[in-house]
Design a protein that fits this description.
- The chain is mainly alpha-helical and 243 residues long.
- Among the domains are: 3-97 and 109-114, Arc Repressor Mutant, subunit A, CATH 1.10.10.10; 160-219, no CATH class.
- The chain is built from nine helices and three strands.
- It has helices at residues 3-16, 22-37, 48-55, 60-72, 101-117, 151-158, 166-175, 180-192, 206-219, and strands at 44-46, 76-79, 88-92.
- The protein has a three-stranded antiparallel beta sheet.
- A hairpin with an 8-residue loop joins strand 2 and strand 3.
- The longest helix has 17 residues, at 101-117.
Length: 243
C-alpha cells in the first residue's frame, strides 16, 4: 500500500462528494491513521472513545451517524460490536485507482529501499490515544540529532546580555571614538537599573543598546534634558490671599 496515493485518492473523493461534512472527514482521517498504524491490515479493531477524541467529535449520535454514512457511501465497511469489551471492526476501502504493472514494480522497488533503512522490531501502536504511546515519537538506536538543531541556541549564546565589567564598556566606547566618561555614564546608568530598559524588559544585547546611546550622544551633544513645566505656572504661591 502506498500511503500518499491512498490519502490523495481520499481527498480527491472528498472534493467531489457534496454529502460530506467536516465530521465525516475528520472521522475518516482518524480511521485512516489507525489503518496506517496497523500497516494497512485487512481489518482493524477500533475504540469509539479514542476515535471521537481524535476526530474531535463530541456527540455519540454524530459519531454513529457519520460512521454509518461512510459505510453506506463506500468509504469503509463497518462491523459494529455488540460487546462492551470488544471493539468494532472496520475494513477500509481502497480508493486509489488501479495501477499498471510498471507502477506496481516501481512502488515495490521503493518499498524495498525504504525497508532497508527502517527500524526493525518496532512495536506497532494501533490505538489513537496518548496514553497508549501512539503519539510519542518512535526512538531508534541509530537516531542522531539534526546538525542544525542547535543553531538557534548557539546564536543566542554568542549575544552577550550584559558586559563583563566596566572596562569592557570603556573599551567599546573608546573604539567608537567617545570619551571614557561617556562609557562610564552608560555603564553606571544601566548598572543602577539592573540592565533593564525603560519598559522594564531585560537587556538582550548591550552593544546594540550602546549604539543607540552613542547615536543620541552625537545627535544631542552636551544637551541636558530637564522636565518642562507645560502649564508654565509659578511655584511661588501665597495661599493666604483670597481668590
Amino acid at each position: 500500500m502506498n500511503y500518499i496515493k491512498l490519502l490523495n485518492a481520499a481527498f480527491e473523493k472528498f472534493y467531489f462528494d457534496d454529502r460530506l461534512n467536516p465530521a465525516h472527514v475528520t472521522l475518516y482521517l482518524a480511521l485512516f491513521q489507525e489503518w496506517n498504524c496497523s500497516r494497512f491490515a485487512g481489518e482493524i479493531s477500533v475504540n469509539r472513545r479514542d476515535l471521537m477524541r481524535a476526530a474531535k467529535i463530541g456527540s455519540k449520535s454524530t459519531y454513529h451517524r457519520c460512521i454509518v454514512n461512510l459505510h453506506d457511501w463506500g468509504y469503509l465497511d463497518y462491523f459494529p460490536s455488540k460487546s462492551a469489551f470488544k471493539g468494532s471492526r472496520i475494513r477500509m476501502c481502497v480508493l486509489e485507482k488501479q495501477e499498471t504493472k510498471a507502477e506496481e514494480d516501481f512502488d515495490s522497488f521503493l518499498d524495498g529501499i525504504a525497508g532497508q533503512y527502517s527500524s526493525k522490531n518496532v512495536p506497532v501502536q494501533s490505538q489513537y490515544s496518548p496514553e497508549s504511546g501512539h503519539l510519542s515519537k518512535p526512538s531508534s538506536p541509530n537516531h542522531k540529532p539534526l546538525v542544525g538543531s542547535n543553531i538557534n541556541s548557539t546564536k543566542l549564546e554568542k549575544i552577550s546580555k550584559q558586559p563583563k565589567d566596566r572596562m569592557d564598556v570603556l573599551l567599546f566606547f573608546n573604539a567608537k571614538g567617545l570619551s571614557p566618561e561617556e562609557g562610564k555614564r552608560f555603564f553606571d546608568y544601566y548598572q543602577k537599573n539592573e540592565w533593564r530598559t525603560g519598559d522594564g524588559e531585560q537587556v538582550r544585547d548591550w552593544e546594540a543598546l550602546a549604539h543607540s546611546w552613542i547615536k543620541n550622544t552625537f545627535r544631542f551633544p552636551g544637551k541636558k534634558f530637564s522636565k518642562k513645566d507645560s502649564l508654565q505656572t509659578s511655584n511661588a504661591k501665597d495661599y493666604d490671599q483670597p481668590l
